[in-house]
Amino acid sequence: MLDIERIRKLVEMMVDNDLVEISLRDGDEEVSLRRPQVGVPGSLPQFSGGPYPWSPANPGGPAAPEVQPTAPPAESPAEQNPDEDLVEIASPMVGTFYSASDPESPPFVDVGTRVSRGMVVCILEAMKVFNEIKAEVSGTIERILVKNADAVEFGQPLFLVRPG
Amino acid sequence: MFRRILVANRGEIALRIIRACRELGIETVCVFSEEDRGAAYLELADRAICIGGAAPRDSYLKSDRIIAAAEVTGAQAVHPGYGFLAESAPFAEKCRASKLEFIGPSAEAMRLLGDKATARSLAKKAKVPIVPGSDGILDDDAETLKLAEQLGFPVIIKASAGGGGRGMRIVFSADDLLSTMKQARQEAKGAFNRMDVYIEKFIEKPRHVEVQILGDQHGNLVHLGERDCSVQRRYQKLIEESPSPGIDGRTRRDLCAAAVKLCKTASYSSAGTVEFLVDAKGRFHFIEVNTRVQVEHPVTEMVTGIDLIKAQIRAAAGEPLEFSQRSVRWTGHAIECRVNAEDPEADFRPCPGTVEKFRPPGGFGVRVDTYGHDGCRVSSKYDSLLAKVIVHQPTRAEAIRCMQRCLREFVVHPLKTTIPFLSRVLAHPAFESGAVDTGFVERTFQSAEAVV
């Protein structure tokens, strides 16, 4: 059985050292990890909600590597238990996420910002139309799950809010 | 040629498009709804993007989200597949306005030929035989009654914006005409957002024969022969084959020529299908055009050896057709059976659920287009088509034998499917002799226990 902790450590090591590919064999278990090279033409934006079983949302970090296990098949990673209290702000559309109203302005919110219902938390742009996304709960921004200019899909979690 | 195409559909046709793109070296981005999240075929696309909730109107019909998906993923073109937005002229226009190529005909051609009443007028002008009926849509009750009497009952009322076998009502006597028309208008408004209807003489026991058309953006247009789709139930096709066993060579020639003529009149490009009814005397009558690639396109692919999806993509990319009418060749006989997740013994009630065991057939001349696999989910939110089995053999008799073998091998467990029913139809002497009409299934198999 593949050790999720070990894979997580490998991922960290790759990111820290800017490695693109790593292959390990241990007995009859084999793991290959490959990071898509950011900025290479033809590289596609990643979606954290994608069909791949191992593409965790990676806030603020470089592109998450894709695990490609060869025989035997990998166990699916243990579900990250989201904090029960946190409320998701999910994308209601497909578009590009912008954290501020324009490149010169500061972001609408940061980790720790108090938000109230109806407050604009970000902009999602599609087809040249800029849509203000408003918080539906009051609370504090606990985590920002996407980066400025990320492509987002319908239902993709954007923020985690601690209500209150 | 496009670098990346957005596949704006789901299930087997999405997979079909993904495969064609991969062979052409084109990257694919496939959309999916929350209901289709995790579907195995999505893993064959280079990327998948969620565009909304389970209901088609919350996802696969959301043109803005689909276009946004193409934008954020850097796709240059959108393939709409069939159904959903495939025949939406406004969607095609929105794509092109957003600098995305729509893999299909121009919005204008879609409007001209997609509107059933307009297409009829165009056919009439092009001297293509049409079913006797009204000139355009009806707006005067007295005139309509007079016309119906002239045509002779029964007549059929059709919605101008309808299609796919929907929005049609048969009227057997003058007494029912006006009230049925009123009902038909209401239904048309509800289903297609337009009340316009027209009437035609109802042709009894017709064969349904359609012609595959393919055009490029340079004015080249060819036909790829016909398909006979007479085995239907409630206007839904069950079995399709090519060539048609019910028409002679001369009719075939004239039918195909008429289809080409009509499409050229509308400056048609990309793939399309012109549908005709052939009456008991062997005369053909134009009924409608489908301005998209169809479910049963593999039948034509097998007998011609031409990959229709690749041809569509190439045409959309501005390439001229690779072949002329003269160079198209047909070999052998192909039959397709649609395997739906439905229970033929319970009035073909849809049977959604999880397929635990999925063992499709194989062998010489056998093709299976499906999104199915062990453990796949058949959703209740979308159509029940699970797989298409297509066989291609040197003769029709061999094709039937091959298809019977395939249906026997095909395991789908535990969901009920139309496989046993298809087998009974294929074994029926009327089908074997090629003498079926569009009423054959309903007449012959009124109940599941009907003795063949």
Question: What key attributes describe this structure?
Answer:
heterodimer, A: 164 residues, mainly beta, OB fold (Dihydrolipoamide Acetyltransferase, E2P), 2 domains, four-stranded antiparallel beta sheet, 1 helix, 8% helix, 33% strand, elongated, B: 452 residues, alpha+beta, Rossmann fold, Dna Ligase, domain 1, D-amino Acid Aminotransferase, Chain A, domain 1, 3 domains, eight-stranded antiparallel beta sheet, five-stranded parallel beta sheet, 14 helices, 22 strands, 33% helix, globular, disordered C terminus
State the gist of this model.
By secondary structure, chain A is mostly beta strands. Chain A contains 1 helix and 11 strands, in the order αβββββββββββ. Chain A folds into 2 domains: 66 residues, no CATH class; 77 residues, RNA polymerase II/Efflux pump adaptor protein, barrel-sandwich hybrid domain (OB fold (Dihydrolipoamide Acetyltransferase, E2P)).
Task: Describe, in plain words, how this protein is organized in 3D.
Chain A is mainly beta. Chain A is built from one helix and eleven strands, in the order αβββββββββββ. Chain A folds into two domains: 66 residues, no CATH class; 77 residues, RNA polymerase II/Efflux pump adaptor protein, barrel-sandwich hybrid domain (OB fold (Dihydrolipoamide Acetyltransferase, E2P)), CATH 2.40.50.100. Helices cover 8% and strands 33% of the residues of chain A. Chain A has a four-stranded antiparallel sheet, with no helix packed on it. Chain B is α+β, with helices and mostly antiparallel strands and 452 residues long. Chain B folds into three domains: 100 residues, Rossmann fold; 70 residues, ATP-grasp fold, A domain (Dna Ligase, domain 1); 238 residues, 2-Layer Sandwich (D-amino Acid Aminotransferase, Chain A, domain 1). Chain B is built from 14 helices and 22 strands. In chain B, strand 1, helix 1 and strand 2 form a beta-alpha-beta unit. Chains A and B meet through strand 10 of A and strand 3 and helix 2 of B.
